[in-house]
Write a structure and sequence with these properties.
- The protein is mainly β.
- It has strands at residues 2-5, 7-8, 22-29, 37-40, 49-54, 57-62, 67-73, 83-87, 96-100, 107-110, 120-123, 134-137, 146-151, 161-166, 178-183, 191-197, 206-211, 221-226, 238-243, 251-255, 264-268, 273-279, 284-293, 299-301, 310-315, 320-326, 332-339, 345-349, 358-362, 369-373.
- A 5-stranded antiparallel beta sheet has the order 1-3-30-29-28, with no helix packed on it. A 5-stranded antiparallel beta sheet has the order 2-27-26-25-24, with no helix packed on it.
- Strand 4 and strand 5 (49-54) form a beta hairpin.
- The protein starts with a strand and ends with a strand.
Length: 377
Amino acid sequence: MKRVVLFASLLNFSSFPIASAEWVKHSVVAAGHTNTAVAADYTGDGKVDVISSSAGKVSLYVAPGWGEVVLHRFPGLGANCIHSESWDIDADGDVDWIGSEAWGKPFWLENPGDGSGAWTARIVDHEIKGIHCLLKADVDQDGVLDVIINNFEPEGVLADSIAWFRAPRDLKKAERWERFVFADRDARGGSHYFGFGDVNGDGWGDICVGSKGAPFADGNWFAFWSSPGAEGITKPWKKTILAENQLAATNILPGDLNRDVRVDFLASRGHSQGVLWFEAPDWKPHEIDSEMRSPHSLVLADLDGDGDLDGATCGYESKVLAIYTNDGKGSFTKHVLDVNQESYDLRSLDMDGDGDLDLLNAGRASGNVAWYGNPLK
């Protein structure tokens, strides 16, 4: 356990410390290159555990001692999951897991409920490939979570497309999940991470995406697809470009950033440089941190408990984990939380059960998984 002092950057930002400025860094594992980590109470003991993928396997790290339970092994030792999610997929009362290699098939692991390693693997889809993101969301508003998965490759059945998947009735016998392509070959350019939220106020969740570009053609944009509602939910959706010429765009998340009761977007250029936000209704861009290099991960949540949405990222080239506190009007202050830390995947959740949001970081080439305890409580 390591105490890290949160301080405000003096360059290009207003500078003031936030209350109780000591976040506590907790090391979960240093198992090598790690692109994704998620957390939940997988063992049913009331403590939040972690599942991550490295060294050719998917592993559960059981809190509080972080003992490893190997859940799945890939045929190749170098194989790792690019992204993942977790929820009670089979509605049996315990939390399952879903993930994929970048060029593998998405699959889910069924939790046996006892914390053992006997998690059964089942394929979600046999044709989608070139995966970078999996996002859980109730796309069709049936009260059951679905999963959104992209195919950023310019070839194959789902080339340059993004689809959402509905779990079949018989999860244990079905060969694949039901697939609905909402971005039908109009997500060309290396689509990356998704956000989900009601952008236009019609009561249905829309899906926003960043596209990185090179080596893929026609990228470097942020966009969202508007849900057509119940009657058209399984058909292609309408695409709206938010911004073009956004070099190596990756992440975009919807939320009201200036308290004007309209949905804005927090975004990052995760394969180049910069964190920014787009202001509704005209999507005016505002640079938040033009110097953060490779901010490949992104969080949008109320991290300081003041009722508005803050941001967080970790630039894997800058090797800086930072929080951007919002004054409620869309003006952000940068606070450096940790250095010599990389990231591909950053999540906000209550890791220690004290009622505030902590941060869980998958350390990419820094080769670790760590969580940072919020000092609010």
